[in-house]
Amino acid sequence: MSFTTDAAAGSIQKVEQRLHRPGQGKKRSRSAVLALPAPHRIRDRDHVKSVAKQPCLVCGRRPADAHHLRFAQSPALGRKVSDEFTVPLCRGHHREAHCCGDEAVWWQKTGIDPSAAARVLWLKTHPLPRAISTGGPKLQNEANLAGSP
Q1: Do 60 and 92 form a contact (C-beta atoms < 8 A)?
Q2: Alpha-carbon separation of residue 75 from 38, 68, 108 (angstroms)
Q3: 79 and 41 in contact (C-beta within 8 Å)?
Q4: What is the pTM of this model?
Q5: C-alpha of 69 from chain center
Q6: How confident is the prediction for the chain on average, in pLDDT?
Q7: Which stretches does DSSP call E strand in the chain?
Q8: I want to staple 61 with a disulfide (CB 3.0 to 4.6 A). Which of 90, 101, 131, 143 is the partner?
């Protein structure tokens, strides 16, 4: 569906012709396509609760808070990152992570890869679907049934 009229389309072509200079490459496309889709912010309370039940990633203390890794996704008008990027931190380390200037540097100093830990925790509550089998044994059983009198 197009929102431009024929007159507007004609004026756009005239402007493009004026901007296009020979020898400087091809004309620019009028359609704008995003190279990367916008990141989705997934919310899952049950996952966050299960992360909070785990021991602190840094010191192993309990109880822990579910900490959202701020560097895992691009900022979006003050919204938290997706719940799939949460790791357990005790209250002290949680405050320390929030108070530091650069969270990624703070994690490097601890020597822990929080993204890998967050991925493992996410897969515990959201396991990947298993590959669909080709039905080998089932087909053999059906063939056996069909062959028997």
Answers
A1: no
A2: 11, 12, 21
A3: yes
A4: 0.60
A5: 12
A6: 77
A7: 65-68, 86-89
A8: 90
Of 16, 13, 35, 37, the C-alpha closest to 25 is 16
Q: How far is CA 66 from CA 106, 122, 149, in A?
A: 17, 12, 62
Whole-angstrom distance, CA of residue 18 vs CA of residue 16: 5
Displacement of CA 113 from its chain's centroid (Å) = 17
Segment 3-47, tens digit of pLDDT = 555 555 555 555 555 545 555 555 555 555 656 666 678 899 999
Q: How many other C-beta atoms can be found within 10 angstroms of the C-beta atom of residue 98?
A: 13
Per-residue CA distances from 87 to 52, 72, 83, 102, 108 (Å): 8, 12, 9, 17, 15
